[in-house]
Amino acid sequence: MSRLDEEEREILEAFEEGKLQSVKNLDAELKKHRDYASITARKDKFDLPEFVKVARVEDIPSGGRIWREFEYETVIILNVDGEFYCIADLCTHDDGPLEDGPIDGHAIECPRHGACFDIRTGAVLTLPATVAIPTYLVKVEDGDIYIENLDD
Known about the structure:
Helix content: 10-25%
Keywords: 2Fe-2S, Iron, Iron-sulfur, Metal-binding
Number of strands: 11
Structural class: alpha+beta
CATH superfamily of the largest domain: Rieske [2Fe-2S] iron-sulphur domain
Order of helices and strands: HHHEEEEEEEEEEE
Protein name: Rieske domain-containing protein
Number of helices: 3
Low-confidence stretches: 33-43
CATH class of the largest domain: Mainly Beta
Radius of gyration: 16 Å
Strand order of the largest sheet: 2-3-4-9
Strand content: 25-35%
Mean pLDDT: 82
GO molecular function, one term: metal ion binding
CATH architecture of the largest domain: 3-layer Sandwich
CATH topology of the largest domain: Rieske Iron-sulfur Protein
Pfam family, one: Rieske
């Protein structure tokens, strides 16, 4: 296996593990490598999901959020200092909505029992929750915000 193939595998694993939360970040990582053109030509092997437009950048000011309902999931799209994140509107402690839970940095707090989650990874930051929340891919193109299509 060549050094480039090994680096590409590591990038893909980081992407699949949620360490790279957006296609923008995946592209940024891939661009670091000399053979970006060859990787881009093979990008279809990453099997990225279909995306659906949910808003314009100006619709979600820094510190703001919007909700979108899909057939089986309601999500929150958040703007934290110009970076956009998408999480399930679900506290895994009691299956209630995170709704208007306060945000501190990259943490959202459940308004009922105080469980906190990292909006970048879904990781649990404080009890009483013990299970991470789902996070979804986000990309921004030409001022439009897209998230992975959850109805696929």
